[in-house]
Design a protein that fits this description.
By secondary structure, the protein is mainly β. It is built from three helices and six strands; from the N terminus they run αβααβββββ. The strands form two sheets. Strands 3, 4, 5 and 6 form a four-stranded antiparallel β-sheet that branches. A two-stranded antiparallel ribbon has the order 1-2.
């Protein structure tokens, strides 16, 4: 996957100083994550094995061996996480995301007013907008890369009118995008 902001140094991506990150090295900094499933809080931390583990072990709901070195799902994923554009949303398609994030909340637009439109109607994968690990502090900023936003440039393109490919966080559940995706141009389109 080609990202707008290159994401290949895990130490920097998970660093507590990163712009946004999944909380592997330290608890998260965002105190407002309404989509978390019961049992997870904004103070929770995740282990690498919460995502990368045997797809037949106990964490995957199976009876096979546990561990991080055996899964039929690349790259050693515990559960299914489809990244192809035009993917039909289902509990199985994004099973990895839905282990921690409540599917109903996301599809009811609990944290982003057009999640359902993007994921269900436009069949845009989570990975088109979100990176799974984080955005390092030297590579992004809290305005453009909050909420793990780091566009997959094979799916999301610059706005042909301005040349911008960006998300701007404008406050709680507010932002704007300048980009082209699925043939639609967004020129500082707010939500």
């Amino acid at each position: 996957m080609l990202r707008l902001v290159p994401d290949n140094n895990l130490r920097l991506l998970f660093s507590p100083g990163a712009v946004s990150y999944h909380p592997v090295e330290a608890p998260g900094q965002n105190s407002d994550v309404p989509s978390l499933r019961p049992g997870w809080t904004t103070g929770s931390m995740v282990a690498c094995s919460d995502c990368h583990s045997s797809d037949s072990g106990s964490k995957a709901g199976g009876v096979g061996p546990d561990g991080t070195h055996g899964s039929g799902r690349a790259p050693l994923l515990l559960a299914r996480y489809d990244t192809a554009d035009q993917t039909t949303e289902s509990a199985q398609t994004y099973a990895l995301c839905y282990k921690c994030h409540d599917r109903t909340d996301l599809l009811d637009n609990g944290s982003f007013p057009t999640h359902k439109k993007h994921i269900v109607d436009e069949r845009t994968p989570c990975s088109a907008c979100h990176t799974s690990h984080g955005v390092a502090s030297g590579q992004g900023n809290s305005t453009n890369n909050a909420h793990l936003i780091n566009f997959d440039t094979a799916i999301v393109y610059p706005d042909p009118n301005t040349g911008k490919l960006e998300f701007r966080d404008l406050g709680r559940f507010r932002g704007e995008c300048s980009l082209k995706c699925h043939g639609k141009t967004h020129n500082a389109q707010g939500y």
